[in-house]
Amino acid sequence: MNEFEKDVQSKNNDVVDSIKGFSLSFIFFLVIFFIGTIFKVVGS
């Protein structure tokens, strides 16, 4: 067992962190998409 396995900085589950990262980035691009769609509808 190496020294990094003994002294873990974060005890969180990796699945939870990956779901958080995916959902935040998905929401971010969704917001950008809707802002662009709103500008396109208002401009036409």
TrEMBL record:
The chain crosses the membrane at residues 21-42. Keywords: Membrane, Transmembrane, Transmembrane helix. The keyword Membrane applies. InterPro entries: YqzM (IPR025416). It holds the Pfam family YqzM. This is YqzM family protein.
